[in-house]
Amino acid sequence: MKNFRVSPSGLRKILIIKPSALGDVMHGLPVLHALSRRFPGAELHWVVAKGFAGILEGHPLIDRLWIIDKDTWKKPRNLPRTCSEIGKLWQDLRNEKFDLVIDLQGLFRSAAIGLFTGTGDRVGFDHAREGAKFSYKYRVATDTEEHRAKTKTELHSVLKNLRLAEFVGCESADPVFTLPPLGEAPDVVRSMPQYAVIAPSAGTLVRRWPAECFGRLASLLPIPSIIVGGKSDSALGDEVARLSGSRAVSLAGKTSLKELGAIIRDAQFLVSPDTGPMHLAAALNVPVFAIFGPTSPFRNGPYGKIHTVIRLDLPCSLCFTRKPCPDWRCIREITPEMVLKVICEKMA
Predict the structure, then answer these.
(1) Domain residues for 245?
(2) What is the pLDDT of residues 34-79, one digit of tens each?
(3) 101 vs 42: CA distance, rounded Å
(4) Contact, 216 vs 243, CB < 8 A?
(5) Closest to 178 (Cα-Cα) out of 249, 283, 83
(6) CA-CA distance, 286 to 304, in Å (whole number)?
(7) Strand partners, 309
């Protein structure tokens, strides 16, 4: 691996590439903070996908957000528009003359964006996928065999990202999650003295705890619950609210990302599977009770000591399957009563 050496005053502009998703953007925040400390005179820019830009808008450490509409780019019927937007992005990025590009995404698209800048000093993971690693001048090892042998676990994604920051000279320190001002939560939330947040959805079905379990849990909790999620989660949120016996109100699909952040910020705790709002809660230092099935809490769990992962230690655990298996024990055998017991013990 080549060595990277630069003085704190030697960089004028730095580009962070981390377009999506919500949890991944949260995992990139400590890198932003570390760079701002190491290079206080540098402009910090961030490439983010349109659907997640709201959580970074107005960030005090970001000088410019580059918002890409990657979901539109995927549709063949939008090819002329896509070519035009990519061409403009290429030209605008090149005109910025960045001194350093850090690719936290590690995929073909993010690597291409890095190449658009024309910047020689591009840093990324040595395990980046889709051929992305071959575009970097500097490839950084993160989750080493030595670490896995010593700890018997994987390195958390937050710490993997910080390895790139450390490589360019940032101090090795505890991660700091800085968010922009979030404003007020919706009126219905502010009228509640205390409440929990339930985020029942997840990016893949295999990570989801059943709606009836979330509904049952909400009915048992000693405080009311607010259900959150994106627009595609509105039906799921309504189902959980119905099953709660009027103990939960669903705002799924009815909030902006900053409103979502405000709701979580003021909550007593959050309950969810492996999903974006879980990482937002962790970044806000709100206690999380995370229900994990086939995915790894060591790599993708809520970061911080105040959080609790609820999972079954089965022989088949951490299989990383993308589809529910025939019995789906790792999820279905976690009962609402089990989760309630853990919450009551931890929050007592």
Answers:
(1) 187-347
(2) 999 999 999 999 999 999 999 999 999 999 999 999 888 889 899 9
(3) 13
(4) yes
(5) 283
(6) 10
(7) 290
In a domain, 175, yes or no: no
As to burial, measured by CB atoms within 10 angstroms (0-12 exposed, 13-18 middle, 19+ buried), residue 53 is: middle
Plot region of 158 (φ>0 → left; ψ -120 to 50 → alpha; else → beta): alpha
CATH code of the domain covering residue 299: 3.40.50.2000
Last residue of a domain, which of 132, 167, 202?
167
- C-alpha 311/C-alpha 298 separation (Å) is 12
Asked if the structure places residue 233 within a domain, the reply is yes
pLDDT at 1: 52
| DSSP secondary structure, 8-72, as one string | TTS-SEEEEE----HHHHHHHHHHHHHHHHH-TTSEEEEEEEGGGGGGTTT-TT-SEEEEE-HHH
CA-nearest of 36, 14, 19 to 173 is 36
pLDDT digits (tens, 9 = 90+) for 223-282: 999 999 999 999 999 999 999 999 999 999 999 999 999 999 999 999 999 999 999 999
C-alpha dist (Å) from residue 338 to 169, 222, 332? 45, 15, 12
For 307-329, write each residue's pLDDT tens digit.
999 999 887 777 776 666 777 78
Residue 180 lies in a domain: no
Closest CA to 42 of 169, 184, 193: 169
CA gap 240, 233 in Å, rounded:
11
- Alpha carbon distance 297, 273 (integer Å): 10
At residue 3, the pLDDT reads: 65
Pairing of strands 138-140, 122-125: parallel
